[in-house]
Amino acid sequence: QVQLVESGGGLVQTGGSLRLSCAASGRTFSRYSMGWFRQAPGKEREFVAASITWNGGRLLYAESVKGRFTMFRDNAKSTVYLQMNSLKPEDTAVYYCAVSAGSLTSATADQARTYDYLGQGTQVTVSS
Q1: Is 1 helix (H, G, I), strand (E, B) or coil?
Q2: What's the chain's average pLDDT?
Q3: DSSP-derived secondary structure for 65-101
Q4: pLDDT tens, position by position, 17-63
Q5: How many CA atoms lie within 13 A of 1 on its CB side?
Q6: pLDDT of residue 123
Q7: Among 13, 14, 41, 47, fewest CB within 10 Å belongs to which?
Q8: Would you report the helix, strand and coil content of the chain in percent, each value rounded to 5?
């Protein structure tokens, strides 16, 4: 069993920045593939970013966040982060981190169903 706890959400103005954190339990965190997803009101959950390799060397981003968001992980702290810069109102959503105990590929990392656990989410609101 893996538990995920997100934090760092809040209210920010357009152009501002936030850093989300996701702390994971489990002794083999360093072996997990990690992902971030988000869900806006009335919309389906969508992929944001993924760290496929244990050292964070292989990262994937949704086109909508490329160049603005950066995902990185600290395996010593069993924590993954999502640094969000140049935020836009359309980034407003509940953000979830997810973990996969198995290996992911670039073809599967953007699909929420391929992950084993999902956090409770943290709200990000960007005002215009």
Answers
A1: coil
A2: 92
A3: TTTTEEEEEEGGGTEEEEEE-S--GGG-EEEEEEEES
A4: 999 999 988 766 667 889 999 999 999 999 999 998 777 778 999 99
A5: 1
A6: 98
A7: 41
A8: 10, 45, 45
- Residue 83, token pair as written in the block: 């640094």
Q: How many other CB atoms are found less than 10 A from the CB of residue 31?
A: 13
Rounded CA separation 34/60 (Å): 11
**pLDDT, position 85:** 98
DSSP letter assigned to residue 33: E
The pLDDT > 90 percentage for the chain reads 72
Q: Quickly tell me which residue has 């509940």 as its tokens.
A: 94
CA distance 16 to 37: 20
How confident is residue 15, by pLDDT bands cut at 50, 70 and 90?
very high
Backbone angles phi, psi at 109, to 5 degrees: -65, -20
* HSE, side-chain direction, 13 A CA sphere, residue 73: 29
User: For residue 91, what are its two tokens?
Assistant: 């980034």
